[in-house]
Design a protein that fits this description.
Elements: H1 3-14, H2 18-32, H3 36-74, H4 81-85
Helix pairs in contact: 1-2, 2-3
């Protein structure tokens, strides 16, 4: 199997950006030239890396969506004097 096709399949399977796969291409090429156990370990690591990057990107997108929703609610809000006083210094 060619490294490019393998990376393409892994990216598609995990919803990863092609750029993420391209960064791992030299490692995949090296793995495909290695012995059976080493090949399997490295390819497993590559797949896990793509999955984690995708999960992290999805979590960041969800966090951004929550922040945007909260910002829309609070946009017209004027804090009360009690809230403003929280930042003041106590005597």
């Amino acid at each position: 199997m060619e490294a490019e096709a393998l990376i393409e399949n892994l990216c598609r399977r995990h919803g990863a950006a092609p750029e993420a796969g391209a960064q791992l291409l030299p490692l995949v090429r090296w793995a495909l030239q290695s012995s059976g156990e080493t090949r399997e370990r490295v390819l497993e690591l590559v797949e896990r890396t793509l999955r984690l990057r995708t999960e992290r990107a999805q979590q960041e997108a969800a966090d951004d969506a929550v922040l945007h929703a909260v910002a829309r609610v609070l946009h017209g809000w004027t804090p009360s004097q009690g809230i403003l006083d929280l930042g003041g210094s106590a005597a």
